[in-house]
Known about the structure:
The protein is mostly helical. It has helices at about 1-10, 20-40, 50-75, 105-110, 110-145, 160-170, 180-195, 200-220. Helices cover about 60% and strands about 0% of the residues.
Amino acid sequence: MAPFMTYLVLLPLDGMFPDELRWIGMAVRGIASLAVAWIFRGYFPPLGRAHWGLAVAVGLFAAWGWVAGQYLFDRLGLGWTLALGSLFSTTPTVIGEPHKPFDAWAKLGPGPWFWVHVVAKIGFASTVVPIVEELFWRGLLLRSLIKWDDFERVPLGTFTWFSFLASSILSVFQHPTNWGVSILCWIVFNGLFYYTRSLKCLMLTHGVTNFALYLYVVRAGGDTWRFW
């Protein structure tokens, strides 16, 4: 839990800087989380194989599904934000409400500051976030929901309906503005984990998903900044 909790505790750092310098908070949070992960690396379970091809394919599919699924939820009238979940979100946003015009250059910083923010966001979301989240969600929580008082005796990738569904539903606290697609994404990630039994594969998959999603946002612009 230590790397993930470090990431959560340092989330308020973003709000301590003006918008054009929010990348400093990202950098401190990311480096600190990796440092804690390195310190406690001896306690990690086996990370397994990378399964590169599978990780890239599923990661790209999850990124596509995140965007397409959210717009589908919007059309169905389910695109609302969970108020309680916003208290625990690990993806703080500077964007505001969906469907409203957003001037990224003005909000994220003019000139080079915009690109510093973009590079920092994509870089840490593609590296640090997958490591700390997968250690927590797939490495710890899936097993703790099976046997919380002795989870280390539960082999990685052990399936129960309760842990499978409960962990997927709990993901909405991390993604309150995209709660519907968050559940679906966690179902896909959990399914991949049951198949590969590899945390390394899930870290790569998660990293590809975040990289593709945020790259798409920068490329497409407009209303897609809601996913930033």
